[in-house]
């Protein structure tokens, strides 16, 4: 039993030890390669007068691929040593994880009367074992920081501070283009003020980058922006997007029309479900659905980008625990557990060299199928009486205005 503080502490320590050993012993450590790309590109640009988008890590064909505002944000790297940069990146990622878990998991703990620190500790261990989170830390990526920036707006919208909402999404979109889809969510959900704030923030950040780095800005927006070859091969097994699935079926041909059809279908499902979430007042559900859609429709979604799936996994678990009907509760819990185990397993790499086989089509894109399943089936909260009253009042107001 873990009904005493001592027992709960021992439980968390035991789980943390097991997860730590798991991470230490599994293959696939990335050696902070992506933060090395950022560090090398920024230093070459600042200290050597090199081209930000022309720099390649020595011995590789990998260079800086983010918008120029990301490079502006990373300018302090040019004043720090390599090991300090790694430490700062890890600290920022840990802080982002703490915020994300607080926003997502703490409401579940309070709802069920669980010890909050104990619940947070268990959740932190579970997040650390997830492959997208492991890879984000191991690569030195910025994914979890971007998730925290975006979810900060969800927290603002649900905590009575909505007038500031949109700033996080705008900054995230200026650093990396994929989060711009959350502006679409704000519009679909009727959050027009937040959408305007997000657009204005992204535009201001991009303009700042133009002023600070006019040359790199011109290069990015006129040539590097559309060059997906700079990122990597679309058919690479780590690309767990719809385009990655199609590319692995026929690596010699891109089939852009087929890909666009699948993207449109995914966006239709996303838009329909987001509208349902908005009518129910389910802000967190809407944000989670949008993170899933971002992973699916982006041309390139490396495994470490799938940290955007974390909110949906947590909300699925919360819905299962809230479900009063035992059979459905077990079904939801099994679904959440199975998805989590697969996302911890690195199973897609089994088919790294034979993804075109029938079993490779299924197993080599396993993370895509999980993302699709969550997009289509993740439970949303039912409308509360307050939401019903607000909707009714809005309808009365609109009718009065028309008359």
Structure commentary:
The chain has 403 residues and is mainly alpha-helical. The chain has helices at residues 5-25, 33-47, 68-73, 82-112, 116-129, 131-139, 143-158, 167-175, 181-188, 192-212, 214-222, 242-249, 256-279, 283-297, 310-322, 326-345, 358-363, 366-377, 385-402. The longest helix is centred in the N-terminal third of the chain and has 31 residues, at 82-112. The chain is globular. The protein starts with a helix and ends with a helix.
Q: What is the 3D shape?
A: globular
pLDDT < 50 runs, ≥5 residues: 385-403
Largest sheet: none
**How many angstroms separate the termini?**
64 Å
Q: Let me know the number of strands.
A: 0
Which structural class is indicated by helix and strand composition?
Answer: mainly alpha
Q: Level of helix content?
A: 55-70%
Q: Helices and strands, in N-to-C order? A: HHHHHHHHHHHHHHHHHHH
What's the rounded overall pLDDT mean? 90
Strand content: under 5%
What radius of gyration results from the CA coordinates?
22 Å
The number of distinct helices, counting runs of at least 4 residues, comes to 19
Secondary structure layout plus pairing:
Blueprint: H1 5-25, H2 33-47, H3 68-73, H4 82-112, H5 116-129, H6 131-139, H7 143-158, H8 167-175, H9 181-188, H10 192-212, H11 214-222, H12 242-249, H13 256-279, H14 283-297, H15 310-322, H16 326-345, H17 358-363, H18 366-377, H19 385-402
Helix pairs in contact: 1-5, 4-5, 4-7, 4-15, 7-8, 8-10, 9-10, 10-11, 13-14, 14-15, 14-18, 15-16
List the keywords.
single chain; 403 residues; mainly alpha; 68% helix; globular
């Amino acid at each position: 039993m873990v009904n005493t503080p001592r027992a709960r502490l021992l439980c968390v320590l035991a789980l943390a030890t097991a997860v730590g050993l798991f991470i230490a012993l599994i293959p696939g450590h990335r050696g902070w390669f992506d933060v090395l790309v950022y560090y090398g590109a920024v230093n070459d640009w600042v200290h050597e007068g090199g081209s930000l988008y022309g720099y390649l890590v020595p011995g590789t064909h990998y260079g800086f691929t983010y918008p120029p505002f990301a490079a502006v944000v990373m300018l302090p790297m040019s004043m720090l040593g390599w090991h300090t940069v790694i430490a700062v990146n890890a600290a920022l990622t840990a802080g982002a994880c703490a915020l994300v878990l607080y926003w997502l998991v703490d409401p579940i703990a309070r709802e069920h009367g669980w010890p909050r620190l104990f619940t947070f500790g268990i959740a932190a261990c579970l997040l650390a074992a997830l492959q997208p989170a492991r890879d984000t830390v191991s690569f030195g990526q910025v994914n979890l920081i971007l998730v925290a920036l975006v979810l900060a707006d969800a927290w603002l919208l649900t905590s009575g501070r909505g007038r500031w909402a949109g700033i996080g999404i705008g900054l995230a979109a200026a650093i990396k283009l994929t989060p711009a889809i959350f502006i679409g969510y704000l519009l679909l959900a009727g959050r027009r003020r937040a959408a305007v704030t997000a657009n204005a923030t992204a535009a201001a950040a991009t303009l700042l980058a133009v002023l600070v780095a006019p040359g790199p800005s011109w290069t990015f927006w006129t040539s590097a922006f559309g060059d997906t070859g700079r990122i990597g091969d679309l058919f690479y097994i780590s690309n767990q997007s719809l385009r990655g699935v199609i590319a692995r079926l026929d690596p010699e041909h891109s089939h852009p029309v087929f890909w666009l059809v699948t993207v449109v279908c995914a966006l239709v499902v996303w838009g329909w479900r987001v509208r349902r979430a908005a009518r129910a007042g389910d802000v967190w559900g809407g944000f989670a659905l949008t993170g899933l859609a971002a992973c699916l429709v982006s041309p390139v979604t490396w495994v470490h980008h799938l940290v955007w799936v974390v909110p949906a996994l947590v909300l699925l678990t919360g819905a299962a625990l809230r479900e009063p009907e035992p059979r459905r509760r077990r079904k939801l819990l099994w679904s959440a557990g199975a998805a989590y185990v697969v996302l911890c397993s690195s199973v897609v790499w089994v088919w790294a060299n034979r993804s075109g086989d029938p079993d490779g089509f299924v197993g080599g894109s396993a993370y895509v199928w999980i993302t699709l399943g969550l997009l289509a089936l993740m439970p949303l909260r039912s409308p509360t009486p307050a939401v019903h009253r607000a909707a009714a009042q809005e309808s009365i107001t609109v009718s009065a205005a028309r008359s």
